[in-house]
Design goal:
This protein has a domain at about 1-170 and about 205-230 and about 295-310: NAD(P)-binding Rossmann-like Domain (Rossmann fold, 3-Layer(aba) Sandwich), CATH 3.40.50.720. It has eleven helices and twelve strands. It has helices at about 10-20, 60, 80-105, 140-155, 180-190, 205-220, 235-245, 255-275, 285-290, 300-305, 310-325, and strands at about 1-5, 25-30, 45-50, 65-70, 105-110, 160-165, 170, 195, 200-205, 225-230, 230-235, 255. Helix 8 packs antiparallel against helix 9 (about 285-290). It is globular, with a radius of gyration of 19 Å.
Length: about 325
């Protein structure tokens, strides 16, 4: 199977590329001029220089492909120019869907996010059928991913074979940028977590997310959304697990929402607006933290054969990788 893959230089996309190559896929990998190609080392495939912002450059790479796996996204919780995020996430997805139709590509797997779901403050576990609207989205990242997902749903309703995957919070090695989730681990390893908020996440092994992408190419039902998750954990439980792995003390002070929001406001204003650097905390993150992002992956288990595995080994692998690559000091094994 010849597969055009976007986002292969990124965290999730790198693991998807590895999983596809292991199954013998003939890969065409989209890279930009500014891409760090380190994550492509050892992955067989042809690279195609292009950019989702310039769709006319992508058409030649789609010729003769059997499938598109669209993993690339602008995943940031703070951005000086939000318009750039909408261009990448929404316009880029819409244009790639159109180009795949025009090229006669038979399958299209779109990597969305669990961020497009409607979570609650009481921690009720949600699934793909939980009602949601654009009004439920907090911040530009969530809004842009929701709008992009709507493009994918509309294409499926018009007859295109589009399968939508919604990973929760992937964790594992090779998070080079790192992602916002990876930065949580890096900050913890560098003793920058004096306190925590009462929130919750679903952590998933990135390797299982990658395997689900392979399965979706043959087993996914067009128009269906599949949550790819692991363990539902409070933020304190996540920090405690990291403490057990590293020996670094887990914080015991819980920050009220108002205090966290005030800190994020000044951090965003001073660091972001005045100094032009990415702030350590943003109002968007704090607002997201009011809801526990607990989710069920039963639908993916039933139709894709998705596996829910303990996340502890993936957390350990991520920590070892961050330490080995200089993101944090070396610690005990």
């Amino acid at each position: 199977m010849k597969v055009f893959l976007t986002g292969a230089t990124g965290f999730v996309g790198h693991h998807v590329a590895q999983a596809l190559a292991a199954e013998g896929a003939d890969l065409r990998l989209l890279v930009r001029k500014s891409s760090n190609l380190a994550n492509l080392e050892g992955i067989p495939g042809d690279t195609h220089l292009g950019d989702l912002a310039r769709p006319e450059l992508l058409a030649p790479a789609l010729a003769g492909c059997d499938a598109v796996v669209h993993v690339a996204a602008d995943y940031r919780l703070w951005i000086p120019d939000p318009a750039a995020m909408y261009r990448a996430n929404v316009d880029g997805t819409r244009d790639l869907l159109r180009l795949a139709r025009e090229a006669g590509v038979s399958r299209f797997v779109y990597t969305s996010s669990v961020a497009t779901m409607h979570f609650r403050t009481d921690g009720i576990v949600i699934n793909e059928d939980t009602p949601v609207s654009l009004a439920d989205m907090v911040g530009h990242y969530k809004r842009s991913k929701f709008m992009a997902e709507q493009q994918a749903i509309a294409a499926a309703q018009d007859g295109q074979q589009v399968i939508i995957l919604n990973p929760t919070t992937p964790i594992g090695p090779n998070d080079r940028k790192p992602t916002p989730t990876g930065r949580i681990f890096v900050d913890f390893l560098n003793n920058k977590f004096p306190a925590y908020m009462d929130t919750g996440l679903n952590l998933v092994d990135v390797a299982e997310v990658a395997r689900a992408h392979v399965a979706a190419l043959t087993r996914g039902q067009p128009g269906h959304r599949y949550i790819l998750g692991g363990e539902n954990l409070t933020f304190k439980q996540i920090l405690d697990k990291m403490s057990a792995i590293t020996g670094i003390p887990s914080p015991t002070v819980k920050i009220p929402f108002a205090v966290a929001a005030t800190y994020a406001f000044f951090e965003e204003w001073i660091t972001g607006r005045i100094r032009g650097r990415e702030p350590r905390a943003t109002l968007e993150e704090v607002r997201m933290g009011r809801k526990k992002m607990f989710a069920s992956s039963a639908h993916a288990q039933q139709e894709l054969g998705f596996r829910i595995v303990p996340v502890y080994p993936a957390m350990r692998a991520a920590i070892e990788w961050f330490r080995a690559h200089g993101y944090a000091p070396q610690g005990r094994a």
